[in-house]
Amino acid sequence: MLVPSRSARRALHLLFLVLFLPVFALPLLVIVAASFATSWSGALPSGPTLAHYQDLAHGEAPQALLTSVLTALAASLAALTLGTWAALAAEKLGRRTRRLLDALFLLPVAVPSVVVGLSLLVAFSRPPFLLNGTPQIVILAHAVLVTAFAYQSVTAALARLDPAYEQSAAGLGARPAYVLWRVKLPLLLPSLTAAAGLCFALSMGELSATMMLYPPDWLPLPVQIFAATDRGALFAGAALAVTLMAATLLVLLGVSRIRTKATYR
């Protein structure tokens, strides 16, 4: 134990709660409370109601949520595939080339996401790569923004991976493709699932680049949340935000179970 004293551990737990509740938990709890309220005249929302969620069930929210989930799944799959392939390829590169590849993948994270959206808007506005006004450009933007996290996660896992497993399989006559699919990737599965969950969560909440690119028939839920709050429908926007959080958490819980099974395997 880093802190052997019981009283010191209690003090640290208390300090954690004091810092965690106001900064992280309280804002989320206020959003949840606002989603069930009709007014907000005091310190907290008031007037309990389920009307906002009933309106969501009969409005555009289900389709917007499905759009967000499909976008996040497609972007996460693309980011995980590209990031894993690049991380595996970077193992064979020299130090300078690897640093250049690291910088290339981190570049979309280093600049504001609205810049990424604008660059894609300009790059794919002319044939033969005309994607403006299509769902594909939204998925591409999300994939560009989250691929860096998949790449870094797999790169860190590869650095911790014991090369003895790969060397043993190769010494027994296994081909490189067999070693990759039956030895290396199974050992990386916990990191791959963690990267997939992170990419999915980031994609579900992406707004800036999406605002510049989304077509009218592909409206993700964060855009609808922004539109609702922008026109003053605060409580409806809070209900949309809670729906977005709940859907993201459900998927992350499923990914966490897969990761746990992969770790024990």
Examine the coordinates and then state which fold CATH places here, giving the name of the CATH topology of the largest domain. Answer: MetI-like fold
Beta-sheet strand percentage? under 5%
CATH class of the largest domain, please? Mainly Alpha
Radius of gyration: 22 Å
Structural class: mainly alpha
Question: Domains counted in the coordinates: how many?
Answer: 2
Task: Tell how many strands the DSSP assignment holds.
Answer: 0
The rough form would be described as globular
pLDDT below 50 for ≥5 consecutive residues: which ranges?
A: none
What's the rounded overall pLDDT mean? 86
By CATH's scheme, which homologous superfamily of the largest domain applies? MetI-like
Secondary-structure element pattern, one letter each: HHHHHHHHHHH
Largest sheet: none
What's the tally of helices?
A: 11
Q: How helical, in percent, are the residues?
A: over 70%
End-to-end gap? 27 Å
CATH architecture of the largest domain: Orthogonal Bundle
Structure at a glance:
The chain has 265 residues and is mainly α. It is built from 11 helices and no strands. The chain has 2 domains: 49 residues, no CATH class; 204 residues, MetI-like (MetI-like fold, Orthogonal Bundle).
